[in-house]
Amino acid sequence: MDFEDMYASLVPKIRQLKPGTVFFVKDLFEGTEWKHLSRGDKLAFGKFFKRKVELGQVPRARYHGIADNNSAQYVKA
User: Fold this and answer.
1) How would you classify residue 70: left for phi > 0, otherwise alpha for psi between -120 and 50, otherwise beta?
2) What's the burial of 41, exposed, middle or buried (CB within 10 Å: 0-12/13-18/19+)?
3) pLDDT bracket for residue 37 (50, 70, 90)
4) S-S: 34 plus which of 8, 12, 26, 71, CB 3.0-4.6 Å?
5) Burial bucket for residue 51 (CB in 10 Å: 0-12, 13-18, 19+)
């Protein structure tokens, strides 16, 4: 699984979000694409994405905290 390719496909979707929008990584995927990933791949990609956000490599996205379902939330800056 190429996380860089997955990430690259999400960047335009993040740019389209309105500032202040709170989102989960899974919200950025089309249709059932997220559901077809294994649990391990979802967790690994989530960590990969969060790391990119923390390093400032995700345009206009900030870590917002953990939601009630224990998933990372982000906000469009």
Assistant:
1) left
2) middle
3) very high
4) 26
5) exposed
Instruction: Please name the residues in contact with 18: beta carbons below 8 A apart, sequence gap of 6 or more.
Output: 76
Spatial separation of the C-alpha atoms in residues 24 and 15, rounded to whole Å:
14
The predicted structure's pLDDT at residue 1: 72
What single letter denotes the amino acid at residue 5?
D
CA-wise closest residue to 61 among 5, 21, 9, 7: 21
Cα 36–Cα 37–Cα 41 angle in degrees, nearest 5: 175
CA distances to 40, 65, 76 from 62, in Å: 24, 9, 6
Distances (CA, A) of 40 to 1, 35, 57: 11, 12, 23
